[in-house]
Design goal:
Strands 3-2-1-4-5-6-7 form a seven-stranded parallel beta sheet, sandwiched between helices. It has helices at residues 17-28, 40-48, 68-79, 102-123, 152-172, 190-197, 201-209, 218-229, and strands at residues 8-12, 32-37, 56-59, 84-87, 134-139, 177-184, 240-243. It is globular, with a radius of gyration of 17 Å. It is built from eight helices and seven strands, in the order βαβαβαβαβαβαααβ. The longest helix has 22 residues, at 102-123. Bound molecules: NADP nicotinamide-adenine-dinucleotide phosphate. NADP nicotinamide-adenine-dinucleotide phosphate binds at residues 12-13, 15-19, 37-39, 42, 61-63, 88-92, 111, 139, 141, 184, 186-187, 189, 191-192.
């Protein structure tokens, strides 16, 4: 499919859902992957599903910004300079404004947005990134484009990520570092399956019917991310690519 042979790629959120599917896909394309998440057991589960065993697991809480310097030293010592970064780690909180506390909003912004800035800052340092260039992908959401009750905090964290991508892409183009984001619609993950089980059938049908092509799979998103990481996407930067089965264009 795409040539990622020998590419070294850091994937956050690799212990679950979309990040796990992407780590599996990237290994299938012969990339060497650094898997980040807090839960070491689930990171090892991801590793057991990947092709080749030359990957590197780094359990870390991305809210601990003071640890990034040391983490990147460990990653590059283990893997050498990096070619790609994908920030899947994210928190999705359904929070009506009147129930929103500053701390819970701040936690969501820390993981979804500020961690992305800090990751990009450290990833792009001379000692950490391939001198010839690299590709960075932030994971946004259609919640950055369309409104929904109780999603103002989550939507704002993703819209801010998309805004950051456009300016960071300008800032790093001279180093041939491309920076894009991907905005998925509703994807079938184990976590979403559990949430769906708690909803009345009518609400489940409403979610499915809002996507003209039906809801997506983690592999759909992984395929797009693999493309953006590859040199086939070498002229794409500063873009937010929507992958939502038509959700955002349907009336
Ligand atoms: N699923 C969808 O329908 C959908 C749609 C649009 C966008 N997205 C976005 O896609 C991304 C992945 O979603 P998902 O459905 O795969 O979610 P998920 O299954 O809940 O996975 C979230 C990942 O983030 C990691 N994470 C959370 N907080 C962290 C922290 N403080 N430090 C390090 N890692 C942390 C988790 O790892 P640990 O638990 O091991 O820490 C886990 O690997 C998110 O950014 C989400 O907003 C998802």
């Amino acid at each position: 499919m795409y040539d990622l042979d020998g590419k070294k790629i850091l994937v956050t959120g690799a212990s679950s859902g979309l990040g796990r599917a992407a780590a599996i896909k990237l290994s299938a394309l012969n990339a060497k992957v650094c898997l980040i998440g807090r839960d070491e057991t689930r990171l090892k589960e991801t590793l057991s599903l990947m092709k080749n065993k030359n990957h590197f697991i780094l359990p870390a809480d991305l809210k601990n910004f003071e640890e990034y310097e040391e983490s990147f030293k460990r990653i590059t010592m283990e893997m050498g300079k990096l070619d790609g970064l994908v920030h899947f780690a994210g928190i999705h909180k359904i929070l009506p404004l009147k129930a929103m506390k500053v701390d819970s909003l701040k936690e969501m912004l820390d993981v979804n947005l500020l961690a992305f800035f800090e990751l990009v800052k450290h990833f792009t340092k001379k000692n950490n990134v391939n001198d010839a260039g690299a590709s960075i992908v932030g994971i946004s959401s259609v919640a950055s484009l369309r409104g929904a009750s109780a999603l103002s905090g989550y939507g704002c964290s993703k819209a801010a990520l998309d805004g950051a991508v456009r300016s960071l892409a300008c800032e790093y183009a001279s180093k041939n570092i491309r920076i894009n984001s991907v905005a998925p619609g509703f994807v079938k993950t184990p976590l979403n399956d559990n949430t769906m089980k708690t909803l009345p059938q009518e609400a489940v049908d409403k979610i499915i019917n809002a996507h003209p092509l039906g809801i997506g799979t983690p592999e759909d998103v992984a395929n797009l991310v693999a493309f953006l990481l590859s040199s086939e996407a070498k002229w794409i930067t500063g873009s937010t690519i929507i992958i939502d089965g038509g959700f955002s264009i349907a009336s």
